[in-house]
Design goal:
Largest sheet: 3 strands, antiparallel
Order of helices and strands: EHHEEHHHHHHHHHHH
Distance between the termini: 90 Å
Structural class: mainly alpha
Helix content: 55-70%
Shape: elongated
Number of helices: 13
Radius of gyration: 29 Å
Oligomer: single chain
Number of strands: 3
Amino acid sequence: MNSTASDTVTGAGQLSIGALSRLSGLTPKALRHYDRLGLLSPARVDAATGFRFYTADQVVPACRIARLRAVDLPLDEVRAYLAEPDPAAALGILVHHRTRLESRLARLTGDLHELAHLITDGVDHPMTNSPAAEELLSRDNERRLAATLYNATWTLMEKEGRTPAEDDRMIHSAHASRYHWEQVGTAANLARGEWQCSRVYAVLRRPEPCLHHARRVLDICQENGIGDWDLGFAYEALARGSAIAGDAEAARMWTERALAAAEEIAEDQERALLLGDLETIPGQPRFW
């Protein structure tokens, strides 16, 4: 079979577009497209024939492009990944894309679930997530539900001898309360909902989700200019999560920030509540 100049290795050691295609897994059409975009340009283009030629050191980036595009990484992020000198930042691009794909998978899973109902029950069967169904829960009712779930979570946290099933219910109640506050509450409500989620996981000695929700409390406070005792309890939650994680240094740092925040709390009773709560953190001394 005769080969042409467009799919061979030249005598000068340059790779034709066909050769690079075989080595990288990228089609010639894709290589031409990436050339037009400036993502992977040939080392030389023959002025007479228009044939593209590449060097051997372009095989690795071509293979990287092929692997990244195989997982549907957008072209602008492929470009950013290839240009990023910091390995941690490059990894962050992939982690962000993983989150995107996981969200896409969740949507597809939901679509498949709904499609199964359509196949079984028919298109005219009532849908529980329809706007009409959502309107059944008024804002006042949703606010009451959020508060009821918040209080129910506290009741479970305070219960001695909780069963594993009650531990699960406590987690779900806290998250459900936080969800409903998001629909009808203020930023302060959201911060307190995140704080309760953090405290639930602290009670269950689960440091990773405890710290995750504690950080969200602080984020919400900082993003919305919330101070006073909400900010103090954000630091308290981070101190408690750090202590449960075995990070004594971080626990002490966040405790000191909570103590500083306590000085800014206007109400004596609220300040005393924060100080008393800080004393219940494992390994912490008395502060007052």
